[in-house]
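Deliverable D5.2: sample structural annotation.
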Amino acid sequence: MTMRLRLGLAVLAALCLPGPARSSEGGGAGFAVPVDLAIPDERLREPEPAPAPALPAGGPSAQAAPDAAALERLDWSSAPVRLTLHGAGAAAALRLSAGGVDALNTNGEPLWTETKLSVRVRSVALEQGGLAVFDLRNETEEAQAVPAFRWTCGFGPEAKYVNPARCPRLSQGGQRTNHPRDAYPGVAYSPIAGFGEHGLFVGAAFLYDAANLDHLVGVRNYRDGERWVAEYAPLGPWPDGKSVPKQNPPALKLAPGASRRYALAFGAAPLERWYTAFEAYKRFLHASWGEVRYERDPRPIAAFSFGIQELIGAANPKGHSYRLDLLGWKDWVDRFLREQHPRGWRKTMIWQVAGSYAEHRGANMVFEIGTGVCEKGRETAGELKRLYERDVTVGLWMGRAASLSAGFDSGERWPIDTEKAEDRAIWERELDLVRAWGIRLTGLDDTSHGQRTKWAPSNVEMARKFFPYIRGKYPDHEFPIETAACDFTHLWGPSIFPERFIPRGKPEYAEWLSPGVVFYPIFKKGMTGGDDPKAHLDPNRLQELMDWSYVPIVFQYPSQVFDLTRRPVAAIPLEAPAPVPAPAEEKKAPVEAKTEDGEE
């Protein structure tokens, strides 16, 4: 039995209830979900009887730095990682050793913040690393806030630390503080934190039954005096129900008599392979949510927008930027085959294919990708067959894809309930119509939120119900997820977010955590990093993203097309396109504010 398999079995034995696995809801493939962190008592060891180690001069804040020379000599091929707990209560000391060298010693720093709950900490040994298990109980007569769990590290001020947002990577320099929205499973990709120096990385993941508890966990690393602190804070819902408020979300509360169990899974790894310190979390994630459920398609996507709010007027009531309502599909298909196809583009996706809402502009993007398309577009949809015959995949962007609509520009929207036949019928009506046109790619706008909003269910609800439903109903369809899927929603579809959030280098952590996942960065003006306003037209940056395994979504402009047949991808100027016939110029309607997600 390999070490990885033995470790996986140990984590599952420690974290999963015995008995039959629960299956997913909504018609998708079944997968096991640990109902609780119900670690059998025989797996929990009492704190070691030895007294806590003596603190260095200066008290707990004077953290002892690991022996740099000893760490740099570590032979990682045979370096066992061990977690031990000394003492009891919040001041108990966690010690993590790698190959016999202390990699971490919290030296009595508090393991949780002040609370009126009863908290007991115990340890579970894993083959590599270990779990610090926290049992909480409210023995008072009022609801009490759950504390934040924390550990400290004595690395120097220039140590590297995990940035967990969207696409986790290592950062360095300054003090890291996280915005309240940088919580899991919202903006934070995984509930992980850790630090690296002297060739060593030490990290811990927060383990909890997200599928059933459905609450946020704020995760952050920060420098506090002479030590680094990693903190994990279970959070309650924002009082106003908004997904991105200005204030911090409140702490989660436990009712009188309620109990809860959480755990931190500690590990250590060589700094260049820092992500492997989270092996226990990797096993826990896939035991909870299953594996990747789609095939990687490496082809970049040429993106177009057929509707823009600023163009709405009396003669153009839906703000068509491409006059599908006047020309139908033939002219656009001709242009794609003339301009894009010879330069290697074999995949495309269209935003706002039905135009834009005029009366309820704050509700854009448009949901009705089928029924909202103009009569000319529906009548000429057979023209798309010419693209399929040339091996081109055509996709459409579905606005607020988990929020149903009472009709085009009706202003009435509500989060889908997949258990209601009438809700499913509304969603399927749009998909079935465009699938009759040959569409097999649909971008899911605004479908990734840590908490339930007026537009969409939470990430947990999406992964438990919505994604299994649509994948079960349309198994041959690709459903990229916007914006920035977390680790378990990423198992259902590629993750979409602006290119400016892409870190330098490959998405090592995500690809290691769940082999086969795909990131779709949007390469568009306003969504591209740097100070250069034309950065979205940089062929070298586009080539770099592709070399790092990202699959870019590239908005195409009339004067610029990237040539995929050349390396690096070359930006080739095109002749000005023939003018699109349109009615005489009319006075434009007043432009309202941008939509909530900042898209046009």
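Annotation notes: The first helix runs from residue 3 to 15. The longest strand covers residues 259-270.
The annotation will be released with the project's public dataset once the embargo ends.
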